[in-house]
């Protein structure tokens, strides 16, 4: 199981885009997961995308956008 961390920049940008922390949490827990590249993963829900970088046993969310 991975530990998930959200970068400060991604969190602040999500707030500016009117994306609530609850929506981000729900997407990370139940959204579709797609690996791409060597060290990246995308979590997708009907409303938002979260992109994370995998480092060891940690996923750092670096981008949160609306669809």
Give a brief rundown of this model.
This protein is of the alpha+beta class.
Structure description:
The chain is an alpha+beta fold and 67 residues long. The chain has one domain (3-66): RelE-like (YaeB-like fold, 2-Layer Sandwich). It is built from 2 helices and 5 strands; from the N terminus they run βααββββ. The chain has helices at residues 8-16, 21-30, and strands spanning 3-6, 32-36, 40-44, 48-55, 58-66. The longest helix is centred in the middle third of the chain and has 10 residues, at 21-30. The chain is globular, with a radius of gyration of 11 Å.
User: In percent, how much strand structure appears in the residues?
Assistant: over 45%
Q: What is the makeup of the main sheet?
A: 5 strands, mixed
How many domains? 1
- Spatial ordering of strands, largest sheet: 1-5-4-3-2
Q: What name does CATH use for the topology?
A: YaeB-like fold
Number of helices: 2
Q: Please identify the structural class as seen in this structure.
A: alpha+beta
Tell me the CATH superfamily.
RelE-like
Poorly predicted regions are none
Give the termini separation.
27 Å
Q: In the CATH classification, which architecture applies?
A: 2-Layer Sandwich
Mean of residue pLDDT? 97
Report the radius of gyration as a whole number of Å.
11 Å
Order of helices and strands: EHHEEEE
- Tell me, briefly, the overall form: globular
The beta-strand count equals: 5
Summarize the amount of helix as a percent range: 25-40%
CATH class: Alpha Beta
